[in-house]
Amino acid sequence: MLCVWGKIWQKNRIKESYVAEDAHTEWPLASRIEVCVDEIIQKLDLPRPIWLPKNQEEMQTYGCTTFHQDHFIEPFPYEGFEIEIIKTDADDT
Question: What are the structural domain ranges in the chain?
Fold first, then answer.
């Protein structure tokens, strides 16, 4: 089971958060993260962020990445949106 935590913050306080889960163990990790992010942005009513190479590198290295206003085409009324992998299939064993 893959669990991804998405949170939006304003003035250094978490305004809303949501944890999405994905059980498709046969899918590539990037696809599973994308499914979770889709669920998170839908639940938090956010526009879709633009993934830059920096975001991909941070996800691979640290398991989390942050998006700011410049990652959104539509208005984004918060200081930031962060996604973090909090559980992977390896944690289940």
Answer: 2-92
